[in-house]
Specification:
The chain has 138 residues and is of the alpha/beta class. Helix content is 44%, strand content 20%.
Amino acid sequence: MRSTLKMAALVLLATVSAFAGDLSPDMQAKFIKILASSAGSPGKVGCSNAAVQAELGKIGISHDPSSKVVWASSEGEVKSMSAGGKLVLCGKLDWLSSGGAIAIVEEGGKPQIYLHMGNIAASKVTLSDAVLKIGKRL
């Protein structure tokens, strides 16, 4: 039963990710700010991506590698950051299966938030009910 559910989730993830795209760094930054605040980390996020980091700076978010909320710009970053017990935000649905907790993507010209509930729980970061209601759960 459990393996059937896991397989169904992987098929759904593959289907949805075929239609998902990247948001611009300024749009990513706006969503990162909302999610970081929701996770109890207002004003700081770990982020190594220069473009996203610059946009975060414009809206009052500073780069802090010790933050419990981080933005991953590659699948390798997702894997290493999730192993460190962080709430990993990313811009690719495929990276949720590698340890990402929340993917912020574009679908049909609109931003969408996907939540990987297992990875969110593993991060031990509590999100507000508002985020849990607007995000699509995988």
